[in-house]
Amino acid sequence: MSSGAGYGTYALSKRRIDGLFVYAVIYLAFVYVPVLFLPLFSFNDSIYIAFPLKGFTFEWYGKMVDSPGLITALTNSLQVASIVAVLATIFGTLAAKAVTRYRIPGRGPIVGFIMIPLVIPGIIMGIALLILSKMAGLSLSLYTIGLGHMLVCVPFSMLVMISRLEGFEKAMEEASMDLGENAWVTFWRITFPLSVPGLIASLLLSFTISFDEFILAFFLAGTDVTLPVYIWSQLRFPSKLPSVLALGACILMASFVLVSFAEWFRRRGT
Amino acid sequence: MVDRTAPTAALGEVQLTLFQRMRAIFLRYEPLRGFALLSPTLGIMLVALALPVGLLGAYSFWTQNYLDIDHTLTLANYLKFFKGIGIEFQMPGIEFSPFAITWPIGIYLPIYPSLLLKSMKISGMVTLATVLLAYPMAYFIAFRVTQHKMIWLILITIPFWTSYLLRVFSWKIILGYNGVINSGLMSLGLISEPISWILYNPTAVVVTLAHAWAAFAILPIYVSLEKIDRSLLEAATDLGDGPMMRFLRVTLPLSMPGVIAASLLVFIPTVGDYVTPKLVGGTTGIMIGNIIQSQFGKANNWPMGAALSIISMLVITALICAVLWFTNRARKRVA
Predict the structure, then answer these.
(1) How far, in Å, CA of A262 to CA of A136, rounded?
(2) Average model confidence (pLDDT) for chain B?
(3) Of B31, B52, B271, which is closest to A104 when you measure between CB atoms?
(4) What pLDDT sits at residue B101?
(5) B9 has a pLDDT exceeding 50
(6) Torsion of CA A44, A50, A51, A56, to 10 degrees
(7) What pLDDT does B331 receive?
(8) Do A110 and B187 touch (CB under 8 A)?
(9) Radius of gyration over alpha carbons of chain B, in Å?
(10) Measured between alpha carbons, how far is B143 from B246 in angstroms, rounded to an integer?
(11) May I ask the CATH architecture of the domain B86-334?
(12) From B11's CA, which of A231, B32, B144, B253 has a CA 20 to 30 Å away?
């Protein structure tokens, strides 16, 4: 009887409001509340970020749109992030395909080598690349930032693609080849459609990482800066803070829309 | 007699061009095709990773003269790091802060080693706090939520899609002298003047980082919990384990890979973090990343900065290897 009852409570315990559920709600609050102060104060009609709230205003959003530095930084970030996302996904996919599809001697060490950027603090990679560009005579620009971001995004992209390509794909490809298709047609009719969800995940992940990355960009930025570097330069001036908060609120909103869209897309695909 | 000239002539007719022969070799040997696919990625990693880290190593053995770099190899930067380590005697005493336990005999650490040690302490506490707080949440999503797991996971991750800088900055808004807590408490009439000690100290750094990296801990732990074969839990229950024993003997050990992955994912980037100590750490909360940065900025001593980076990297790597080795040994002993 005890075992039956034990299993019963285990199954039942999935739907009840208890300590764990309360904890989950408190945890969500801990994660959300600090971030939600950004939109809250971005509508506050006062230059000081403090309670009590003064009044409702769109002034800071107007100021945000009016600052040319911000718009340039945003465009730079979008450019760098898009290019990095595409390139990192291409490189990551090629490498993932190589290690999942072919027997390669020294596979472990090679994958380990590509994953190294994930276990080195960003600041060290930043200064290492800074030294490289100085010694190679490269002037710091959006290209050096992009190179730095590639370093972080390629391993992530490769991880995503390995988990997507592993397993099912080889047999399907072989079936296609056996049925007389050549490698090119096989790629477009089998490999590519099957890896689309992985490709989209990799593109989104790389884009987000690059768009948000600060430390590498901080060391590798020349006169053209990306959005995080611009935000960093604004944090020192109290008078600029409300517009920065407005910007933060916009980024939060945009991410929300993007994540919802990605999830909608994922559900539609399956 | 057999005519031996005919086959040779036939062979001559199908003689392959050099290109075709190379193509045949290429198609026959799998590793070759594999390496061809890998080569662009490996190439970019060699140029953007191996080469710069090598140069960083080279820089650490050089010296900064006033404006240029002296390329003579020297250990001076490393000696500067270790210089002054010694034994010291001091009054014993324990303050109410985990950062300020003083022992009667201690090892005196000069500025660089003590900063590195402090950074690792702060990151260690961040890692501990993040993983401990995240575990029940990951457990909740993996075992309690039945239908809308994805919704919960997305709810958890959305705040982490905002800018990292702004996530850190939001804590400055909260803890600041005129911040949310102080102005809130004052407008409620609970305090008459702002509390100043809540910002600009190591604890503020720990709280901020624990919040900023929360999602990185939840996801790996969730994945490892989700992978656990549910029939093992039923077996434990059938064999008479209560919920507590079942958790300690089945769930927790099986989720350890996720816990270790989460710890590494949080620990490694936070040791070198530069933003958080700069924004909320004040003078007592500075970490090794700030010192490294200053060598490339105001202090303008790139070789010293390079040496500090190399030392930090080696110490962190050694620590991680030690942790992985111990957990491996523990796992073997259990198995």
Answers:
(1) 40
(2) 84
(3) B31
(4) 53
(5) no
(6) 0
(7) 78
(8) no
(9) 29
(10) 14
(11) Orthogonal Bundle (1.10)
(12) B32
Cβ of residue A21 closer than 8 Å to a chain B Cβ: yes
Task: Note whether A126 and A215 are within 8 A (CB).
Answer: yes
| pTM of the entire predicted model | 0.82
- Structure confidence at residue B140 as a pLDDT band (50, 70, 90): very high
User: Is the distance from CB of B300 to CB of B68 less than 8 angstroms?
Assistant: no
A160-164, A237-241, B223-227 — most confident range = B223-227
- What 3-state DSSP class applies to B69? strand
| Residues of chain B contacting residue A145, judged by C-beta atoms under 8 Å apart | none
**What pLDDT is stored for residue A266 in this prediction?**
65
DSSP three-state, residue A255: helix
Asked whether the CA dihedral A81, A83, A84, A90 is positive or negative, the reply is positive
Residue indicated by tokens 């111990």: B326
Residue with tokens 């770099």: B69
For residues B18 and B26, give the distance between their C-alpha atoms in angstroms, rounded to a whole number.
12
ipTM for the predicted complex: 0.81
Helix (H, G, I), strand (E, B) or coil at B210: helix
Q: How far does A247 lie from chain B, in Å, by closest CA?
A: 10
Write phi, then psi, for B92 (nearest 5 degrees). Answer: -70, 150
Catalogue all structural domains in chain A, each as residue range(s) with its CATH number. Answer: 2-42 (no CATH), 69-269 (1.10.3720.10)
